[in-house]
Amino acid sequence: MKVLGLITAFCFGGLLFYISFDFPDWGDSASPASQHVSSYYIEHTMQDTSVPNIVTAVLADYRSYDTLFETAVIFSAGLACFFLLRVGERQAPAARFYRHLSTGITFRIEKGGRLPESTGEFERIDSVWVPYDVIIRMTCRLVVPFIQLFALYVIAHGHHSPGGGFQGGVIFGAAIILFAISNNLRQALRRMSEKITTLLSSLGVMIYAGTGMLCIVMGAGFLDYRALSSFLGVDPVTARSHGILIVEIGVAIAVTAVMVWVYYILSSAGRQDEGL
Amino acid sequence: MDGIVSLIIAKYNFWAVIVLLLIGFYAMIAKRNIVKKIIGMNIFQTAIILFYVSIGSKKGATIPIITHGHDGVNHTVQAADYINPLPHVLMLTAIVVSVATLGVALALSMKIYARYGTLEEDEIQGKLMESEPG
Amino acid sequence: MIWSLDIIILTIVLICGIAAISIRDLLGAAIMFGAYSFMMCLLWSIMGAVDVAFTEASVGAGVSTVFFVAAVFRTSRRTKD
């Protein structure tokens, strides 16, 4: 099977190598990819939308219909993971592990035993238990707010620097995942429960689609941000810049919620009581 | 000799992309473990993204963020000074779709593991054969 | 576009890609995949695609590697090939 795979791969590679002599040279300004539409985008972005970052302007304004469905694809991926793996709490695990915080003793309670009450003395730990490490917990507690602040900066500054809604949303989700890894999964679930992640992910898609519908209500086409100028009180060029910011915020909320949701489902195999 | 060197300089990025495509393709069809196949799928996707990004580059051009002065004067923008931004936009969507596909593929592989107890393709096929009635 | 840096990083990308599919330990393969993703991000930032490089750094070398490690943790870690 492996030899057959190698032969197929080399035939495929030989065919592609033969084709590659017809490609335009690397770095050629007259290549067909740079001719027709992209020169219009480069020359007219600043006077149409007053956003210097051309990639953000094309992504969220000229080609915003594609980005709407990209956000819908992320949301449906979160939904697919949820429907595949999520099981209810009807089967309790066979044995639970607890740690007494003052002395550091860990013990195991079989099924049917009496669980400790939820005072501050006993802490439930995972089946593959790790020692109580102060350094990791305190370091991650200190670092997580700065990561979230940087993520908000990336979202807000997407007009002038590389970044935008999607990158900032992923960084924000990564900060919450860091908190879930360093502390328990149950602690992270207590602060950002699964209900909130489902609500936020659909809220992000609704913000994006809602902006488009608002433009229709104001009289222009779908996702034509010039119609928002009377709603926001500015001239049409700045209204397009603000419209880009609003949809980027929608994308960021949706992406954050879906990344955290998929992490909750994957790391606990659907049961959501013990994580990584 | 000169012609060959200039040919290599003009085309070597396409050849690197072809080698990466072959690595990903070989991993997808010849490896027996499912997680290795998923890694091969992601290598294939990032190689395609590298191909599209590299056809948008221009010699001597700068990144596609318009340099604007603080005095409010708008300079005329030449299209040859900036790298083509259109492949970048399309590839942002492609990266997003690849991470969504990765999440669903890993969820499916965990479901297969819960059902058959293994992630190797030949063992799964053996268990399927012996549980089949005919 | 610095040509020598470009060729060095392309070579490292190819080595990381071959290593990611050859390592028998699935956790090691996930880590090598994270390294491959980060080297691709450097390659794109050399070519001038800064938005794509930013996205690949946060998605590929961040969240994608975490998903792989979580899935390997819940299934088995060893593989025969």
Structural commentary:
The complex is a heterotrimer of chains A (276), B (134) and C (81). Chain A is mostly helical. Chain A has helices spanning 2-19, 38-49, 54-62, 64-85, 134-156, 165-182, 185-191, 194-217, 229-232, 236-267; strands spanning 95-100, 106-110, 122-125. The model of chain A has no long low-confidence stretch (mean pLDDT 85). With 134 residues, chain B is mainly α. In chain B, 69% of the residues lie in helices and 0% in strands. The radius of gyration of chain B is 23 Å and the shape is elongated. In chain C, helix 2 (26-47) runs antiparallel to helix 3 (50-74). Chain C has three helices and no strands. The mean pLDDT of chain C is 91. Chain C starts with a helix and ends in a 7-residue tail after the last helix. Chains in contact: A-B, A-C, B-C. The interface between A and B is large, with 60 and 54 residues.
What does the largest sheet of chain C look like?
none
> Total number of helical segments of chain C?
3
| Outline type of chain A | extended
Sheet with the most strands, sense and barrel status of chain A = 3 strands, antiparallel
Helix content of chain C: over 70%
Largest interface (CB within 8 Å) is between:
A-B, 60 and 54 residues
Overall pLDDT of chain A? 85
Evaluate the radius of gyration of chain A: 25 Å
Total of helices of chain A:
10
The pLDDT mean of chain C sits at 91
- Biggest sheet strand order of chain A reads 2-1-3
Structure summary, number of beta strands of chain A: 3
- Please tally the β strands of chain C and state the result: 0
From the helix content, strand content and strand pairing of chain C, which structural class follows?
mainly alpha
Helix content of chain A: 55-70%
Tell me the span between the first and last alpha carbons of chain C: 39 Å
Q: Sketch the topology of chain C as an H/E string, one letter per element.
A: HHH
- Taken as a percent bin, the fraction of beta residues of chain C is under 5%
The outline of chain C comes out as flat
What Rg of chain C is obtained from the alpha carbons, in whole angstroms? 14 Å
Write the layout of secondary structure elements.
The complex is a heterotrimer of chains A (276), B (134) and C (81).
Chain A: H1 2-19, H2 38-49, H3 54-62, H4 64-85, E1 95-100, E2 106-110, E3 122-125, H5 134-156, H6 165-182, H7 185-191, H8 194-217, H9 229-232, H10 236-267
Antiparallel strand pairs in A: 1-2, 1-3
Helix pairs in contact in A: 3-4, 3-10, 4-8, 4-10, 5-6, 6-7, 6-10, 8-10
Chain B: H1 2-30, H2 34-54, H3 86-116, H4 121-131
Helix pairs in contact in B: 1-2, 2-3
Chain C: H1 3-22, H2 26-47, H3 50-74
Helix pairs in contact in C: 1-2, 2-3
